[in-house]
Write a structure and sequence with these properties.
The chain is α+β, with helices and mostly antiparallel strands and 325 residues long. 36% of the residues lie in helices and 25% in strands. The strands form 3 sheets. Strands 1, 4, 5, 6, 7, 8, 9 and 14 form an 8-stranded mixed sheet that branches. Strand 5 and strand 6 form a beta hairpin. The structure holds (3R)-3-hydroxy-3-methyl-5-(phosphonooxy)pentanoic acid. The site of (3R)-3-hydroxy-3-methyl-5-(phosphonooxy)pentanoic acid (PMV) has 13 residues, from helix 4. Its EC number is 4.1.1.33. Belongs to the diphosphomevalonate decarboxylase family.
Length: 325
């Protein structure tokens, strides 16, 4: 039986930055994100006993053998969860501008986990789907839910308490996220590699660990009270702190380009003039600007006037996993 699931990508306001277990994708800190309404992945899975290996197409193209094996290893986890023994045909379509450096792994693994469990004829709770998706890409654990989502790091060695939960559903606290593209280049240091190097070598990493828990507590309070200003101040502070840890890594690295800094400066300048907006940045040079639906248009216009800005994709708070058939 072929089953199709849709999952949206997310942007972290409190970053997941570091693993305590690389095989199970267990993080060193809890994180929090907004699910985005405009970027998503649709994935169909069909288990079939005529197949002698899993097959995977992305946007109608077969992927490289390395990528296929990665997906197949992930499907092994779904097989062990559901008791399914057959191989599967997986077709995935990304409605995420991946070329622009927007991560599609979160929506990708979340949609794959959901579709594969359904295709195996099994049922899973959202917590179980979050645990499965986490083992494809950490941030995918959060894309299972819509709205504002916390991924609780958990304490167990088997990872069974490391899953996401919803803090506030979509449609409750309207925020606007402008994804500002400054570069379409593939990132040089993937998040997996960047985290590992930072955890192992950066003397600033301890400072991150010592304070990220407090950032999370404070931002949850701000979100629940729909206090936009407080949420914005904390998310920008947390993003800068994450990026600061990479400067102390050995060898050191930085995800920003000069264009990234120009956008950051523009955000701070708009704020000084009373236009409220804040920025966050993931493991790449593009910037996400968080603002309110009321000021979104004006801020977008101002950002588009910067010569370093290639494009802007406006998003709002989006939904969790859905099934298409
Ligand atoms: O799950 P990954 O491997 O895509 O790592 C995500 C890392 C950050 O985007 C930098 C932070 C986050 O929480 O999404």
């Amino acid at each position: 039986m072929k089953k199709t699931a849709r999952a949206h990508t997310n942007i972290a306001l409190i970053k997941y930055w570091g693993k305590r277990d690389e095989t199970l994708f267990l993080p060193t800190n809890s994180s929090l994100s907004i699910t985005l309404d405009q970027f998503y992945t649709d994935t169909s899975v069909e288990f079939d006993d005529v197949l002698d290996q899993d097959t995977f197409t992305l946007n109608n193209q077969p992927v490289s053998e390395t990528e296929r094996i990665k997906i197949s290893r992930f499907l092994d986890k779904v097989r062990s969860f559901t008791g399914e023994t057959r191989f599967s045909r997986v077709e995935s379509t990304n409605h995420v501008p991946t070329a622009a450096g927007f991560a599609s792994s979160a929506s990708g693994f979340s949609a794959l986990a959901a579709a594969a469990v359904k295709a195996a004829g099994a049922e899973a709770t959202l917590e179980e789907l979050s645990i499965l998706a986490r083992q494809g890409s950490g941030s995918a654990s959060r894309s299972v839910y819509g709205g504002f989502v916390e991924w609780q790091m958990g304490e167990r060695e088997d990872g069974l308490d490391s899953y996401a939960k919803q803090i506030l559903p979509e449609g409750t606290f309207d925020v606007s996220v402008l994804s500002v593209e400054v570069s379409t280049e593939q990132k040089k240091i993937l998040s997996r590699e960047g985290m590992k190097r930072t955890v192992e070598t950066s003397p600033f990493y301890q400072g991150w660990l010592d304070t990220v828990g407090e950032d999370l507590t404070n931002i949850k309070d701000a979100i629940i009270n729909q206090d936009f200003t407080r949420m914005g101040e904390i998310l920008e502070y947390n993003a800068l702190k994450m990026h600061a840890t990479t400067l102390g890594a050995n060898p050191p690295f930085l995800y920003w380009q000069s264009a990234t800094l120009k956008v950051m400066e523009a955000v701070q300048a708009m704020r000084e003039k009373g236009l409220e907006c804040y920025f966050t940045i993931d493991a790449g040079p593009n910037v996400k600007v968080i603002t309110t639906p009321k000021t979104e248009k004006e801020i977008e216009k101002k950002l588009r006037s910067l010569d370093v800005v290639k494009d802007i994709y406006p998003c709002r708070v989006g939904p969790g996993i859905s099934y298409i058939d």
